[in-house]
Design brief:
Layout (H helix, E strand, L loop, with lengths): L1 E7 L7 E7 L2 E9 L4 H11 L5 E5 L4 E4 L2 E4 L1 H7 L7 E2 L2 H6 L4 H9 L7 E4 L6 H9 L3 E4 L1 H6 L8 H15 L22 H6 L2 E3 L2 H7 L8 E4 L4 H9 L4 E4 L3 E2 L2 E2 L2 H12 L8 H10 L5 E4 L2
């Protein structure tokens, strides 16, 4: 049995362990939250090194993309370096491949129409593939990176502007602690609505669920949510807020969708190769071989 463990800087309240079949193999997958404690995360990574098939890095990013450029978070790289044998992945390759396929999937399988629809992507540099796919399908997109990442009331409305911003700020923010602009630890369970008018205007809200959950307003009536890392409790919350349709970019396993870091770890373990040996095309082949599709669920 292959084993993949996600070590997350997020809340331990979201921990889970399941055994599932994936790509013709039996997997034990586990998510361990460290409540924002980087030292505990480092100790766990050292403890698991050489004992499991892959380690996922959750509650943070190792890489972000700006167009074709990739930037490395210094703090996350230090965490990942605690593993000397077992590969460590953060899910960024899956975000930039699998999530691009979600919009064509919804169009072809469910007949969704995206042209001229208002879409809010809470943080696009973390979901560049999804952002490009929504914009490419004709959505009128607002990228909330400055609003929800830095607290600045400045919406970004074009991919060119997003690219320029990302290339300008990525070299700086990747040297800073992730907790300055991303909810870690118990912040993932706190809800502080912000910039509600952009949620209200959008019929589609997409991106990292921790951003969505933390900042969404009391009503999310008739919205399509495209996200991942959603538990059963999260589904109840979204239903209470009036969300019509939930699409998770990662499939359901054990009654929830896990983070892209766990899925990337499973695909890496399935390949039997180190991530450095795997190209984007290799991951696409693995996705297709495993039959991975988004999860589509009507909530109301």
């Amino acid at each position: 049995m292959k084993q993949v463990v996600s070590i997350s800087l997020g809340s331990s309240n979201r921990n889970s362990t399941i055994i599932t079949e994936f790509g013709g193999q039996q997997f034990q997958i586990k998510r361990i939250g460290t409540d924002g404690n980087k030292q505990v995360a480092a100790d766990l990574i050292r403890e698991l090194d050489g004992q499991v098939d892959a380690i996922g890095l959750g509650g943070t990013d190792l890489y972000i993309y700006a167009g074709k450029k990739r930037y490395t978070f210094r703090e996350s790289a230090v965490l990942a370096a605690n593993a000397k044998i077992t590969p460590v992945v953060d899910g960024s390759t899956i975000k930039n491949t699998l999530e691009r396929r979600v919009i064509p999937y919804l169009i072809n399988k469910y007949g969704f129409e995206f042209k001229d629809k208002q879409a809010l992507i809470v943080c696009a540099v973390d979901r560049f593939g999804l952002a490009e796919a929504l914009a490419g399908a004709g959505c009128k997109t607002v990228f909330g990176d400055l609003m929800f990442g830095l607290g600045l009331p400045i919406p970004i409305t074009t991919l060119d502007s997003l690219n320029r911003l990302a290339n300008l700020v990525a070299p700086v923010i990747t040297k800073l602690p992730v907790s300055l602009f991303y909810p870690t630890g118990n912040k993932q369970t706190q809800m502080t609505p912000k910039f509600a008018k952009y949620f209200h205007r959008a019929s589609i809200v997409a991106g990292d669920f921790h951003f969505i959950r933390r900042y969404m307003p009391d009503t999310m009536k008739d919205k399509l949510i495209i996200t991942n890392t959603v538990t059963q409790e999260d589904e109840v919350l979204l239903k209470e807020r009036g969300v019509t349709t939930l699409v998770t970019t990662t499939p359901e396993m054990g009654g929830r969708s896990f983070g892209t870091n766990l899925l990337e770890g499973m695909l890496t373990a399935l390949s039997g190769k180190h991530p450095a040996q795997l190209t984007v095309e290799n991951y696409i082949d693995l996705i297709e071989q495993a039959g991975i599709e988004p999860r589509f669920k009507k909530l109301t």
